Every structure is written in structure tokens, then in C-alpha cells.
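# nightly structure sweep
# worker-07 picked up a monomer target from the shared queue
# config: single-sequence mode, recycle default, output format = C-alpha cells
# input follows
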Amino acid sequence: MDRLAAEVTAKGITIFARVDHAAGAASVGMPLRPTELLVFGNARAGTPLMQVDQAVGIDLPLKALVYQDAEGKVWLSYNDPGWLARRHGLGSAASNVAAMTAGLAELAHQATTPA
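# output follows
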């Protein structure tokens, strides 16, 4: 998660929240393997989508989940902006969605490529 947060920050994207689900589970005496959510975004990218349909705000800012599975492997997952566009009927914002998709894929690639 630290690598993803660093990549997001380096791109000038705002981090709104970092949620440590494992810490939350531990606070109520429940076990959970490492699981963190990063909430991040950029008004220049998200606003054009909300201008088409404000309901997309339920899915923005973007989120990425980093978690460790039972075998110790770490995963990075996020909702594809193309899926969000289909969900909210954002066809008229296709170029914005394509740019967001490419940017998110690049962030994920940079965060998961060994240094």
C-alpha cells in the first residue's frame, strides 16, 4: 500500500483516506489478514464524469484495495473505470473514462513492479 500511495502522491493525485481494515478488525478482537483501502482522486478527472451523471459520485473518488491472501500473496484490486462508466451510462465521457482507465492501470503497474 505504501508503494501505491507514493505513486498516487507522485502523480499529484489527492489521497482522501487510507483505511486499515485489519486494524479495525483487531480493535474489536477479530482477526483479519492485512487489508487496506486507499481512496484517491483528482477533480479534473472525476468532475467531467459527474457532470454527465452525478450518481457516479457514489463510486468516486476512486478506491484501491491491497490485501494479503491466506498464502501470503499480496493483491491490488480496483474497479475498472470502464465498468463504472457502463454502470452509470457515461458514454458521452468516453475519452475521460479512457484516460482514467489508463492512468489507474499505470499507477497499479508502477506500484506492483519490483524496484
